[in-house]
Write a structure and sequence with these properties.
The structure is a homodimer of 342-residue chains.
Chain A lengths: L14 H10 L1 H5 L6 E2 L7 E4 L6 E9 L3 H7 L3 H17 L4 E11 L4 H18 L2 E9 L9 E12 L14 E6 L8 H11 L14 H5 L7 H9 L5 E4 L4 H7 L6 E5 L8 H9 L4 H7 L4 E7 L4 H10 L4 E9 L3 E4 L1
Parallel strand pairs in A: 4-5, 9-12
Antiparallel strand pairs in A: 1-2, 3-6, 4-6, 7-10, 7-11, 8-10, 9-11
Helix pairs in contact in A: 1-5, 3-4, 4-5, 8-12, 9-11
């Protein structure tokens, strides 16, 4: 034993394989670079030249994709996890009226298959190009004994910018404003631990077509997280976006509450949009009570924008013109700060 | 089964416990806020007011702490993982001559013990205060089946800023410059998978005092990652910092090579500093060859600054005056781009 010559591979870590996968993705990553990116890959930190702002506020967020990654990995669809993690961050930035500028990613597993690293980067870089943001940094870690064999985690930080006087942080929300709901593409990245528990108890595979779902779970559950950058920034440019919420963990109520000022109460009428069948199927299969359902899933609403009542219809039109189905789903009324979903 | 009412807890996720731990850490987190932080906790993204820069370049990095976290968790020292992850990012930013401004953290495990979340945040916020940076965002995820029972991951993104004409990216390094090595506090966060493999094969616990180490492994291995912000930014302010490298995974050669221009070769003389005993002990116990040793561990040098020869002695003094032991460890010579450690 004493004479055995150890190397890093003996610790279950294949550095060369991952370096190879990252190397192969170089051109994809460079393909996301906007003119503000300085330097190239391989620096200790990503460089972004912030030009031409009067009074810039940096708007930054970090997120993961949760246990949806387990289903995506099982299905060989890790590019969706890459899309999800960037879209999530883009939305967190855009709800404040800010333009996302760049992203950094973190990928870790017990051992990383180079093809999986490539799929993740394919998804991330595709969204970055669509959103006009640069992937300027990342870390890829192999951590045996931290991750399970099937486990893999992916997180990303997204940084954006907004002029200070154009920040839409909800402070200007007031009684009489209306709530615009923007359609989600499904669960996005929330509620998957509960969904997987339901699937396990019901014996559902990804190919199951439970209840009146009308399509296999694979198709419905694994849809990528939608980006709301375009509709939200179009509303922000219109100058009447009072605030917006990204509906993630905690559901509509918990997330909308984050932007409400004191003495403003949001009342949402759930008959004002068509709740996708998936949520009914899950509620029934898991015998979920309404409160659990509402605080776990987005119920078909992936983001909510708050605008003056007289701009409500026009705001819906602007969202639709920018690729997002949207509806007026409720009002801001005077009352105890909070959100009521009727 | 159909009548059993499922909740998120059935999926092995205790949202309330983690929310409680984060809530309790609120004041600690607010304690890191610098005057540029706008708003408060609970927004969709952290807000940082970037004031008074002529021509700002944002300098951003994301990092984890690797499998050191397993030893730290076992030892009940997770506050060190919090310190490590912030210090790592601070150094990645500071080697470019940039001042770190703020950080965002990501913490995930199968299940999170609120006391462990508290310890991580205690370490992160302590370094943030020492470094004058704000912890403006974070995500805490419970992911059963992704993480092992003993597994836990912590990553952080650090964003800094530098005036474009003060960026120290290595482009100005030239023949005749000298290399200043800054003392590490031990392994920092690199090589732990290999170290743990050696420990397992040798039957060493954290209380072992192998070879001529002179102290228990616990003390030597678990030392926090050192921050080089002060010495590096002091050199940057002096205007003669040509470039700097953070010595992490890949060791001295691979990291220093990242900043060398074409036709510049770095030659390091390893007799010019005292390599801490730990590295000899590990080399012997794992029967590591010299190449593996050098590309896995920092060998006592946590960062390297490149300065003009005539500023070498003064640079060493500046580093020491800013809390970092330092030595001239080599030269930049003409030759094929690369690093030679003799």
């Amino acid at each position: 034993m004493a004479s055995e010559r150890l190397t890093y591979k003996d610790a279950g870590v294949d550095r060369e394989a991952v370096a190879g996968a990252l190397g192969a993705a170089r051109d994809r990553i460079r393909g996301t670079y906007t003119p503000q990116v300085l330097g190239d890959l391989g620096q200790f930190a990503g460089l972004f030249h912030l030009r031409s702002y009067r009074d810039p506020v940096l708007v930054s967020t970090i997120d993961g994709v949760g246990t949806k990654v387990l289903l995506l990995r099982e299905a060989g669809r890790l590019e969706v996890a890459g899309r999800d993690v960037i879209a999530h961050g883009v939305n967190d930035v855009a709800v404040l009226g800010a333009a996302p500028l760049f992203a950094l990613d973190y990928v870790a597993a017990a051992q990383l298959d180079p093809r999986e690293v490539a799929a993740l980067l394919e998804g991330m870089t595709a969204v970055c190009r669509e959103e006009g943001i640069a992937l300027i940094g990342g870390e890829t870690a192999q951590m045996p004994e931290v991750y399970t064999t099937q486990g893999l985690d992916v997180a990303a930080c997204v940084v954006g910018v907004v002029e200070r006087d154009e920040l839409a942080d909800g402070a200007k929300i007031k009684t009489g404003n209306v709530l615009i709901g923007l359609a989600s593409s499904g669960l996005h990245t929330n509620g998957f631990s509960l969904v997987r528990e339901i699937m396990a108890r019901r014996g559902w595979t990804l190919d199951a077509v439970p209840g009146d779902l009308g399509a296999p779970l694979r198709e419905v559950l694994l849809a990528p997280h939608r980006s709301y950058r375009k509709p939200l920034l179009a509303l922000a440019r219109s100058q009447w976006l009072r605030g917006a919420a990204h509906v993630t963990g905690g559901g509509i109520a918990e997330n909308l509450a984050r932007i409400l000022p004191q003495s403003c109460r949001a009342v949402i009428d759930s008959r004002l949009w068509a709740i996708p069948r998936l949520f009914g199927v899950l509620a029934q299969a898991g015998n979920l009570d309404r409160a659990e359902l509402l605080r776990t899933f987005n119920m078909g609403v992936g983001a909510i924008a708050v605008v003056p009542r007289e701009r409500g219809r026009l705001s819906v039109d602007i969202c639709r013109a920018n690729g997002a189905e949207a509806w007026i789903i409720g009002d801001v009324v005077a009352g105890e700060r909070g959100v009521e979903v009727r």
